[in-house]
Specification:
The complex is a heterodimer. Chain A is 22% helix and 32% strand. By secondary structure, chain A is an alpha+beta fold. By secondary structure, chain B is mainly α. Chain B folds into 2 domains: 64 residues, no CATH class; 243 residues, MetI-like (MetI-like fold, Orthogonal Bundle). The chains are: A alpha+beta, B mainly alpha. Chains A and B meet through strand 6 of A and helix 9 and helix 10 of B. The complex binds adenosine-5'-diphosphate and magnesium ion (MG). The site of magnesium ion (MG) has 3 residues of chain A, from helix 1.
Chain lengths: 361, 335
Amino acid sequence: MSQIALKGVTKSFGGVSVIHGVDLDIETGELVVFVGPSGCGKSTLLRLISGLDQPSAGAIEIDGRDVTRVSAADRGLAMVFQSYALYPHMTVRQNLSFGLENTRMAKAEVTGRVAEAARMLNIEPLLDRRPTQLSGGQRQRVAIGRAIVRNPTAFLLDEPLSNLDAELRVSMRAELAALHARLGTTMIYVTHDQIEAMTLASRIVVLRAGRVEQVARPLDLFNRPANLFVAGFIGAPSMNLFPTRAEGGTAALPGGRRVPMAGVPEGSEVTIGLRPQHLRLAQGNEPGFDLRIALIEALGTETVVHGELAGTSGDTPRRVFAILPGQPGVALGDILRLGFDEAYLHRFGPDGQRLVGPGRP
Amino acid sequence: MTSLGHWAGVLVTAPLVLLARAVDPLLRAWQRWTGIGGMAAFFLLPNLLIFGVFVLIPIVLNLAYSMTGGTEILLAQRPYVGGEQYARLLECQDYSRPLTCREDQFWTAARNTGLFVLFQVSLMVAVSLVTALILNREIKGRGFFRAVFFFPVLLSPVVVGLIWRWILQREGLLNLLVVNLGLEPQVWLNDRVTAFAAAVGVSTWAHMGFYTLILLAGLQAIPRDLYEAAEMDGTPPARVFRRITLPLLGPNLAVVLVLALIRGVQIFDEAYVLTGGGPGTSTLFLTQYIYEVGFASLLRNPGLAAAASMLMAGVLVVLTLVQLRLSRSSAGGQR
Ligand SMILES: Nc1ncnc2c1ncn2[C@@H]1O[C@H](COP(=O)(O)OP(=O)(O)O)[C@@H](O)[C@H]1O
Ligand SMILES: [Mg+2]
């Protein structure tokens, strides 16, 4: 049985519909990441689960109990806010204990839990400081600590790392992963950063404009994007997408190479996707397409090539990304012939949905 | 349209440009003479002049008057008496009973003012806090109500006093209502207690919009997610108010408290128009006392009035220092 279930949840503010019928099952102990572009409704969905907002329609269940009309406090969830929402006039210790003091918990138990959380998060020396006397990373820990002391059935985190600098973000990400492994508590984590999503999640929920586009484990999402949006959103640089047409069971790629294309009506508009990582320098007279190099990003371990398809030089040359291993001796303006394995192709039908059929599983 | 605007612009700026050209050499000369620091003095000069003429000199004159006697108006014709006026004001057998004092009116006025400040300031803080809390909620017509509560602040205090006199006088609106309800009409402004209460209530009504605005600004500065964090923890509303709203509103409340105190001590216009200090001396306040002693009584005594103003100024200076202290600490980001 899933621990948190959303059933046809919708939300509109005034007349504006923001969440359009979301169904989702989250298992106990999972770390589920909501990812999507800014404004797609991630925070709204999280707030609906938390109980801070009420859905316009649909139901939310926790442990099999319908909590749609249950107050936020009675759902047993704890939230970590993007702004941290620490009480500025209270010490760290008071911030941690404030929520517990609402319950009839014994004083000793409160003190014990605060001490335990402080130890776990390495904030013991900070307990008597106020939030203004803390660095961003320390505030972040206190915010997480305030959630931990409540011993919730699930944590809700809304872009918890977005206010930290890049370096701190990476280390806090690792700490959060370790914390999840240690506590084993369900976490729902909102981010617009796909690296955070890929590295942290047991499952990723890709949202766009208030709809779930795909729910999958990180690598499945990368290997088998369900539609063009996910294909373009996950992976950086993003997947190369070539619009083409199905003819006689095949479709032509730029440069003329034809690849099998089954399961769609003759003549329909289809899209073929190829990740930059899956392009390589063509060997011998292997068929492929020619790319004029417009920009080179040499990262040492790999080289990112931004190129324009030769033969499309007109008004809008088609941009193609390729990631070549190591440090190939290429220069700006060179024309490269790139090849690929058909096993790595992603095929999308006229409706933008992934086509099952030949291709990498 | 554009060319019209253009010419209007030229018309306004051309004289300014000419003026600047004319003044520039003078400024340069001044700066060469005094250095860059002197420029600050130059720009401060007009304000300092105004402040000096209308504030500083009157204060000094007031001090001088307070040490003179007689009924003459011109300072030069008044004999120097030293601290005699102060001694006269402070001469008392029993300070708790104004009538045993030589200047019993002064002490009555001081006691009345003290009581007025006590009641009016408590009422003011309570009423403006409650109003701000209500207006901070997402109620219907919030903008309308915010305007309504602020409206009396825009009225002249004399108008406020007149309006309420029409309402509260013997043949006023309130008694009309009372009679229509089949009750006995009351002499609201001729009864010691109701007249005093009316003075307190009316001045609160007249100024509460201002203080409500200060508190409302404070409430809106409290981040919403603090309340959401408290909601997630199931914090009861009373505890949220006590542990989150009140402490975070603290600096604003302190400013309201001190400003209301300062204004309360100076109570005059609306109360004077409303009750004229009566019945008897039950709503006689310090400012009215000073005014009457100095200007409006048969035997004018400017020296005594000046001495009383100096004493009152002492109280106000203390309160103002407190206020400056508070506003500095809240500006310093003590939150
Ligand atoms: N309280 C609100 N009232 C009106 N519109 C809102 C409200 N909260 C969010 N929205 C709208 O809902 C959409 C999704 O917002 P949000 O969930 O915050 O997106 P994000 O995925 O960036 O977290 C946005 O278009 C936003 O403008
Ligand atoms: Mg958001």
